[in-house]
Amino acid sequence: MVSKESEQGIVTTSNNAQSEAYAGVRHPPHPPDASPVVIWLRRYRRYLPIPLVLLTLLWLQPTVPFGSPLLDTVSDIFGVAICALGQWLRMWAWGSNASVGKWGVRDRGPYQLMRHPLYAGNFLIVAGLVIVFHNPWAYPLLLLPFAYLYHSITTMEEQRLRRRFSNDYQEYRKDAVPRFLPALGNLQAAFATTRPFGWGLAWRKEYESCCGWFAGVMLLQVYEGVVARGWTANWQYSIRWFIALGIIGLLALVLRIRKQTTPRSSTH
Known about the structure:
Blueprint (H helix, E strand, L loop, with lengths): L19 E3 L2 E3 L8 H8 L5 H11 L9 H28 L20 H17 L4 H36 L13 H6 L6 H31 L5 H27 L7
Antiparallel strand pairs: 1-2
């Protein structure tokens, strides 16, 4: 089973081994100096958040900032905005580099600002959901492990990129683009290299993410209401969120079926 592409187009498989390709050439699955822990983290990076999130939800409860419903609403709006910013960053990364394909060095759009906009977008989405949840303990419990995870696997991926793309990657790195924090001085270059923008590719890659964090926000609203009012008293609010969740789920299913039945370009 093939996993989603990482930053810069490396593809991995999970059938007891990993493989990478560049210009049709097979290479060893990882550099020899990568630690087993980092290799394991990268291999299972999509599944590691699940037990962490479940632990957080079981151990902690959402809170109202300083007991103020107004501040709770403001923090919810801010959290959703952070999620949207992370999602936009991810779509920008895919769409602006649609012409690069899987095996080239991505250096367009947000890659002019940072070396790993996909992981940065993930982190922003997680941070936004934590803000919506708004339990002080959730910030270190979730954000610190994610920060360590992304720092570790991007270090490993950059070792691979130096080996696989050699001169092309060194040419990209010579401008000292930061790993995660945006180089705002490069905004003009980032916007200048955004077009042509591959809307189709960006949406194919990111519709599941969009539906996922929207559903997460809705479930957190239900959870918060049940904690504050009880299941019965909150039902009139919960049913609205459940209807919205059903719509999101149906939309995700339709898009998935369409994605599976729509021919795709071999370069994407």
